[in-house]
DNA sequence: ACTAAACATGTATACATTGACATGATTCGT
DNA sequence: ACGAATCATGTCAATGTATACATGTTTAGT
């Protein structure tokens, strides 16, 4: 499947980048649906180079500090274009440890269950607020052909996802309070 | 972290099960937020046995077909109880290939983009309908102490998640139609 | 002059996960 | 009696991912 390959190629279509810059991209908006740290990125870039999907040239900062700036090749663009066009079956639903906890939550007394839910809620609210702040920077919907359109869509998706998760937690809290039990299990 | 360990222990608290039965559980509701196939489950059960978290006894069907029925030990219950009680920081947002595609969707012409979105939409609608049919079986909210309460919460969560994903896709379709471009990139 | 943060690239080890390979028994329908 | 579906358990190789190890430079602030 090699999704990381296409994530990197997609970034390099926008502009040539170093491995370090690619890693940074993954820690901004992109992290809302994809992530890789540098220990995965550098080997992948090496592989992409040997496959002819990218080429690099070395830039020097200061006296000796080298950075490899990678550019996507025609072969890379062609491969990426085929990938992005391809219909795809639904992935398996992503794993979610908190949902796993809630699935087994009958093993908890009401107090503990609600504590866990409130804690999780707070974290999602914080994330939501961060996302909303980033979203405020878009004063209008970017043109569908600009590469900021993709950023806009996934950021909107991330906000909706967080709002929905919070709504689910609220339902869980409500049901737990409505329906108290004396002792667990 | 060993989430699979706790997923298995949680199931075994409900009742003793064979590896085969555990694998089956992962392909029903549980698959909405966790999954493992038998090639992961059997080794994990072996490990849990050697750690003293579970024990098994062999059942024979017919003449010779052996099945190992695993039972959780006191040590296993204690370990699970500590785990379920523990507060947890948010996981990294799960990877989502379709969102990755949409992030790079400025490389597509409007027609292709909408085709991909419609295709994905259909698949989510199908999944949603399946989930709703399962949900109809709950004529009332199960008691918070019954082990069907967890099933109920995560099933409700899965329905909300699918509805929300479809709403996001609809927004993407709307923005793509509102904001057409002549040629990609 | 010093220092902290950011720039920059790599490797290694362990763990998690997938899909294929491998084998065979039992049950249910026709 | 036959065949298909289900029951049942395991290993292996490849891939993917996380965390730590490892090293050194440059820049911006004080």
Sheet with most strands of chain A = 3 strands, antiparallel
By CATH, the superfamily of the largest domain in chain A comes out as: Winged helix-like DNA-binding domain superfamily/Winged helix DNA-binding domain
Helix content of chain A: 55-70%
The domain count of chain A comes to 2
Q: Report the strand count of chain A.
A: 3
The residue ranges of chain A in which pLDDT falls below 50 over 5 or more consecutive positions are: none
CATH class of the largest domain in chain A: Mainly Alpha
Terminal-residue CA separation of chain A: 43 Å
Overall shape of chain A: elongated
Q: Which architecture name of the largest domain in chain A does CATH use?
A: Orthogonal Bundle
The oligomeric state of the chains shown is homodimer
Strand order of the largest sheet of chain A: 1-3-2
Classify the secondary structure makeup of chain A into a structural class. Answer: mainly alpha
Provide a count of the helices of chain A: 7
Strand proportion of chain A: 5-15%
Topology order of chain A in helix (H) and strand (E) letters: HEHHEEHHHH
Which pair of chains forms the biggest interface, and how many residues does each contribute? A-B, 80 and 80 residues
């Amino acid at each position: 499947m090699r999704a990381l390959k296409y994530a990197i190629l997609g970034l390099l279509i926008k502009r040539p980048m170093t491995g370090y810059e690619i890693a940074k991209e993954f820690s901004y908006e992109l992290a809302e649906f994809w992530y890789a740290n540098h220990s995965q990125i550098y080997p992948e870039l090496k592989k992409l180079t040997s496959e002819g999907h990218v080429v690099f040239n070395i830039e020097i900062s200061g006296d000796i500090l080298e950075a490899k700036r990678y550019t996507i090749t025609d072969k890379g663009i062609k491969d990426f274009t085929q990938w992005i066009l391809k219909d795809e079956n639904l992935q398996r639903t992503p794993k979610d440890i908190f949902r796993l906890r809630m699935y087994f939550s009958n093993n908890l007394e009401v107090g503990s269950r609600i504590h866990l839910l409130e804690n999780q809620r707070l974290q999602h609210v914080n994330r939501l607020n961060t996302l909303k702040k980033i979203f405020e920077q878009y004063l209008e919907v970017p043109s569908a052909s600009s590469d900021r359109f993709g950023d806009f869509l996934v950021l909107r998706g991330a906000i909706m996802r967080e709002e929905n998760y919070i709504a689910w937690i609220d339902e869980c809290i409500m049901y737990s309070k409505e329906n108290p039990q004396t002792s667990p299990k």
